[in-house]
Amino acid sequence: MIRKEMIAMLLAGGQGSRLGILTADMAKPAVSYGGKYRIIDFPLSNCINSGVDTVGVLTQYQPLRLNTHIGIGIPWDLDRNIGGVSILPPYEKSDNAEWYTGTANAIYQNLKFIEHYNPEYVLILGGDHIYKMDYEILLDFHKSNNADITLATYPVAWEDASRFGLVITDENKKVLDFEEKPAKPRSNLASMGIYIFTWKVLKEALIKLKDQPGCDFGMHVIPYCHKNGANVYAFEYNGYWKDVGTLSAYWESNMELIDLVPDFNLYEEFWKIYTKSEVSTAQYLGENAVLSRSIVGEGTEIYGSVYNSVIGPEVVIEEGAVVSDSIIMQGTHIGRNSKINKAIIAERALVGSDCELGVGEEVENKEHPNIYCNGLVTLGEKTVIPDGVRIGKNTVISGVTTPEDYPNNWLGGGESLKKAGEDA
Amino acid sequence: MRAIGIVLAGGNASRMKELTNKRAVAAMPIAGSYRAVDFALSSLANSRVQKVAVLTQYNSRSLNEHMSSSKWWDFGRKQGGLYVFTPTITADNSFWYRGTADSIYQNIDFLRNSHEPYVVITSGDIIYKLDFNKVLEEHIENKADITIVCKRLGKHADTSRYGVISTAEDGRITSFDEKPNGSEDDPLVSAGIYVIRRRQLIEMLERANEEERYDLVRDIIIRFKDVKKIYAFEHKEYWRNIASVNDYYDANMDFLKPDIRDYFFRQYPDVYSKVDDLPPAKYNAGAEVRNSLIASGTIVNGRIENSVVFKQVYIGNNCTIRNSIILNGVHIGDNTYIENCIVESKDTIKPGSNYTGQPGAPRIVLERSDRYGI
Question: A135: distance to nearest CA of chain B, Å?
């Protein structure tokens, strides 16, 4: 007989459109992070480190990269005889076929998957935060309170509180009320989108609410249960927790890793973060290489200078190139004497020689001022930049670009240049 | 692939001095992220050999730790797999492995119970990549009994540690001199890799054992070289034996050369190793690194030149590391100077230390200070 005390359901189907071009071809949880990881490595590693060995990963938007990354779960020790990791895309049923229309709807559509493991508790996770958390402690809290639902919450600064979904609790952390982005917050405990449900309670609610359009945990399921007298508790988490949902937050969170002793320390032996690495060779630094305040992934070769940057695996930075305040992902090539200033360059891009990225004054991006901001230059996956061009700030470029795309070898600040890629 | 693999990884080498106090030669760390045995295992895996036995004896624990799963080389299969054979006492045997031939003979059931017609035997302490299918093709074409992979050593090579081979026009071996003293110009030497028909090997091992002969080279190859058809297969790519401190040092330094790095790190096929799940290497303000290999999990605060730094090393502020090899997990305190040294793994070097070896004679640093203040 199969029985699991708690299984995890990881919602990884969202696009994450605020990451702009980075999520053009992959779901947000598959985006690279911190020189060798992908965002989903954090919740997956937390699962196995917490003793949760059965994880359903719900995918919908651009799942290819996630599928190849997760495989059968070997890097996280999630290849199990019973349980392990399962990828759960939407599927056609005998009477209907629909996409996942909301977070809770996605779980409802996989009711049979959960039933198969006969769990007592179900852990609901998202795939867009960087954190280390022991879900077992959360479960202990849930059990000791005899709770039906436990929400993981995070104390935010009072002045920011009105940007979050907040929970109001009594002194025993029992939830009294919810507030979604209130003008005058009564609490600073923000919901992290991490929940433990007693499976019986969740199942009943999901079936009751099955016809709710866009059925969502925060908007429908939890309020419904609360209204019907379920015991809802808030667990206060005080560790490192970083949302990487926007390009600016993503860039900042990466940059925090290069601090002398970062808040989020990947160098601790305890609570390792696992990932699938395609390469494991040492990195090579050339005769004239300069490196300062940076982290560098495996198999990378650096002949130029790198300051305050996060460099992924298998990157090549040629002689004379200067990279500062940037994130450069796997397999990207930076040509000779190119200057890269405050850029996010996605995987396998090719920047020619004598280029200059991040030049001049900040100009607001014309198409998406809220996505491409803070002076960042963002290059999509497999972007090609020809030799000798200069590119302004708050810009985004993707696809194979040629000198003709740069009048006078120049792309002004705030511009967006999107061309067909080599696969098109 | 119609062959099974045997990796000889039992040996100690006195020329490795203190470096093999705690590990077998085959477990020596190479090029920042590998162990010597990875090269043999990866070549077997990449040649689609599915069933491989590793024969260990001396300090076998170091190897077992590295081979904690057969997954790393993709041997975790229902058909085949990775077998580690350490000497065991049985009803009819109470000996350690008395030699290379004996180590295989004591596991002769592994040969008997296989159905593949050929056996690839490789040493575990050589650095190379090789497609055994090519050797096997030649072996079959020559209708050979044994094929020995050979390597030309270049000008003025010291032959005293190798088996020197002469061949006829067609590649058949006419003489085999084990470890002749002196030096020769561009000698052809045995690379420690053999292909042989499985039944032939069983027969030869049984006969050798009856005669109480235990060495693969002396008692099988040299003994039968006139009776059996033994051919040479010349390996033209990189090959290096690491059985002395100098060879080990040079083999690591070879990886600072762009062509060798390209050959092993970038060209197909890859060399696989145990996955360590270490974070990216970190360079703090004050780090200065030139012409060096740095492995993951390492934190650099000081200067490094012409060196190979392995995994999870900590290099303190204002240190200078020059022409040296720093093995896994070493902690080097501030203001330390290290030149021409091999620093043994998990060493703790006190701040302000100075270790200098001679060019061409690297000094081995064993420093077991208690780790301070971290």
Answer: 21
The amino acid that residue B145 corresponds to is D
Which ranges of A50-98 would DSSP assign to H, the alpha helix? 64-70
The answer to whether B277 contacts A75, with C-beta atoms less than 8 Å apart, is yes
Lookup: tokens for A110: 């996989």
Mean per-residue pLDDT of chain A: 95
DSSP at A93: -
Yes or no: say if B53 and B7 are a contact pair by the CB < 8 Å rule: yes
The answer to whether residues A331 and A216 belong to one domain is no
Q: What is the pLDDT, as a whole number, of residue B92?
A: 80
Residue A39 lies in a domain: yes
Same domain, A204 and A306: no
User: Does the distance separating the beta carbons of A36 and B280 come in below 8 Å?
Assistant: yes
A260 close to B (CB below 8 A):
yes
A99 — pLDDT class (breaks 50, 70, 90)? very high
Distance CA B343, CA B158 (A): 27
By CB atoms closer than 10 A (0-12, 13-18, 19+), residue B259 is exposed
pTM: 0.92
| Domain harbouring A37, CATH code | 3.90.550.10
Total number of domains in chain A: 2
Contact B282 A267 (CB under 8 A): yes
In 3D space, the residue among A145, A70, A420, A305 whose CA is nearest the CA of residue B289 turns out to be: A305
Cβ atoms B63, B341 nearer than 8 A? no
Going by C-alpha positions, the residue among A289, A306, A284, A315 that lies closest to residue B288 is: A289
B76 and A CB contact within 8 Å: no
What domain range includes position A364? 284-418
Residue type, B63: L
Give contacts of A34 with chain B, Cβ < 8 Å.
Answer: 279-280
Query: Looking at the domain assignment, is residue A423 inside a domain?
Result: no
Nearest CA in chain B to A266: B279
User: Across the interface, do A292 and B285 touch by the CB < 8 Å criterion?
Assistant: yes
pLDDT digits (tens, 9 = 90+) for A162-196: 888 999 999 999 999 999 889 999 999 999 999 99
Note whether A131 and A219 are same-domain residues: yes
Q: With cut-offs at 50, 70 and 90, classify the pLDDT of residue A32.
A: very high
Same domain, A12 and A142: yes
Angstrom distance (rounded) from CA B179 to CA B176: 9
- Coil, strand or helix at A76: helix
Domain co-membership, A289 together with A227: no
Of A34, A291, A299, the CB nearest to B287: A291
Mean of all residue pLDDT scores within chain B: 93
Same domain, A101 and A159: yes
Residues A250 and A289 in one domain: no
Q: Write out the H or E segment, with its range, that includes residue A152.
A: strand A149-155
Is residue A249 domain-shared with residue A288, that is, in the same domain? no
- For residue A310, being part of any structural domain is answered with yes
Largest CA distance in chain A: 71
Residue A269 Cα distances to A52, A272, B165, B301, B374, angstroms? 20, 6, 50, 20, 13
Partner B contacted by A9 (CB < 8 A): no
Contacts of B32 in chain A (CB under 8 A): 281-282
- Of A181 and A125, more confident: A125
Domains plus CATH for chain B? 3-266 (3.90.550.10), 282-365 (2.160.10.10)
User: Which CATH number covers residue A348?
Assistant: 2.160.10.10
Question: Does any domain span residue A277?
Answer: no
Q: Is the dihedral of CA B208, B209, B210, B212 positive or negative?
A: positive
